[in-house]
């Protein structure tokens, strides 16, 4: 199921875990006539995000290679979609799940993880994510059959996209992929797409996306100015953490500011019917920007087709006022 041989979106399926992947791909209407831009809608996964893919893939492989034995415990410092993805996978595979979550993070997401049977350990907000990571490792060391998957450094994260997201894209478009565009958090998505694409007859133009204030530019010899950003799931404040990002696989890094992203979220909903969150809007803007360059002859692609992902939906961010005024959203 996780190797690009998904039976398709319709089933019938035995369990909800089997519905992970095989998400629909939809054309972004606001792209130029001569260049198609497609987005893969990852909110269609049962946990509502692209992270269901890595949750299932990582745990299945760890069970296969004996890193984790049946009935074991998965422990991850996470506040977001990866927790929900891992919680669904653990639920389906008969594993225990414990998430170490700094208090300030979204209550909605913590409730979803708990509903799936996971245990939540809250750590003080002021101690930050570093402390949550320490607690995860301490807890794992105290147990016999426990792993910390560590999405920021685990190659299985990249492999999950290489094995599922990428072949799905290439199959849907019969191999005619001119560029892949994806916002980078762990960079698992973009690296998986880039590695798969590199093995195709016409490798795609690979574009990374980040919010303004993020430091991915440091990987490319730039000296970006660090700042806070509101866009969630992508960007970095410390590139030492982003161990999966391989700059030599990236042709271009596009930076998008929160204000434009906020406006694009509203536009995608109102004009195109997409209830997607900030990282999707960032990807949409970057992919459309690239499409304009192709349409005006500034950039040549092997195919006039650009593919991006919409990693999750907007419903889990409504309490943060994402559809309100920009000033309210950024607080
Ligand atoms: N968007 C959202 C909403 C996410 O949760 C994530 C994961 N942090 C990403 C984008 C980025 O994906 P990746 O970690 O594969 O770079």
Q: How would you portray this structure in words?
A:
The strands form two sheets. Strands 1-2-10-7-8-9 form a six-stranded mixed sheet, sandwiched between helices. A four-stranded parallel sheet has the order 5-4-3-6, with helices on both faces. The chain has helices at 51-64, 81-93, 107-115, 128-141, 155-172, 188-198, 258-272, 278-295, 326-330; strands at residues 25-27, 36-41, 73-77, 96-102, 119-123, 146-147, 179-183, 205-211, 252-256, 305-310. Helix content is 35%, strand content 15%. It is an alpha/beta fold and 331 residues long. It has two domains: 16-44 and 155-330, Rossmann fold, CATH 3.40.50; 51-147, Rossmann fold. The mean pLDDT is 95. α2 (81-93) runs parallel beside α3 (107-115). It is built from nine helices and ten strands. The structure holds 4'-deoxy-4'-aminopyridoxal-5'-phosphate. 4'-deoxy-4'-aminopyridoxal-5'-phosphate binds next to α6.
CATH topology annotation of the largest domain: Rossmann fold
- Using the alpha-carbon principal axes, give the shape: globular
- Which range does the strand content fall in? 15-25%
Give start-end ranges of low-pLDDT stretches: none
Q: What's the level 1 CATH class of the largest domain?
A: Alpha Beta
**Ends: how far apart?**
42 Å
Derived from helix and strand composition plus strand pairing, the structural class reads alpha/beta
Name of the CATH architecture of the largest domain: 3-Layer(aba) Sandwich
Order of adjacent strands in the largest pleated sheet: 1-2-10-7-8-9
Bound compounds, each kind once, are: 4'-deoxy-4'-aminopyridoxal-5'-phosphate
- In total, the number of strands is 10
Integer count of domains: 2
Oligomer type:
single chain
Helix content: 25-40%
Mean pLDDT over the full residue set = 95
């Amino acid at each position: 199921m996780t190797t690009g041989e998904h039976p398709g979106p319709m089933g019938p399926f035995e369990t909800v875990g089997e519905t992970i992947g095989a998400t629909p791909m939809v054309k972004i209407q606001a792209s130029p006539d001569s260049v198609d831009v497609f987005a893969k809608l990852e909110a269609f996964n049962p946990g509502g995000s692209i992270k269901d893919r890595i949750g299932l893939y990582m745990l299945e492989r760890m069970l296969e290679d004996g890193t984790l034995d049946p009935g074991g415990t998965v422990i991850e410092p996470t506040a977001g979609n990866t927790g929900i993805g891992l919680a669904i996978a653990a639920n389906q595979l008969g594993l225990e799940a414990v998430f170490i979550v700094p208090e300030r993070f979204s209550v909605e997401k913590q409730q979803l993880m708990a509903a799936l049977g996971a245990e939540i350990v809250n750590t003080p907000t002021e101690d930050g994510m570093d402390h949550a990571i320490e607690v995860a490792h301490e807890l794992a060391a105290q147990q016999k059959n426990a792993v910390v998957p560590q999405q920021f450094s685990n190659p299985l994260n990249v492999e999950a996209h290489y094995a599922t997201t990428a072949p799905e894209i290439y199959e849907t478009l019969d191999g005619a992929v001119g560029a892949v565009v994806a916002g980078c958090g762990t960079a698992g998505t973009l690296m998986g797409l880039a590695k798969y694409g590199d093995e195709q007859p016409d490798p795609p133009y690979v574009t990374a996306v980040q919010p303004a204030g993020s430091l991915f530019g440091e990987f490319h010899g730039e000296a970006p100015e660090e700042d806070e950003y509101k866009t969630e799931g992508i960007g970095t404040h410390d590139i030492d953490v982003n161990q999966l990002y391989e700059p030599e696989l990236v042709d271009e890094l596009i930076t998008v500011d929160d204000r434009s992203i906020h406006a694009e979220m509203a536009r995608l909903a109102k004009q195109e019917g997409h209830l997607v969150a900030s990282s999707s809007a960032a990807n949409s803007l970057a992919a459309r920007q690239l499409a304009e360059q192709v349409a005006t002859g500034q950039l040549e692609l092997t195919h006039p087709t650009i593919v991006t992902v919409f990693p999750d939906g907007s419903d889990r961010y409504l309490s943060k006022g994402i559809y309100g005024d920009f000033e309210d959203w950024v607080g």
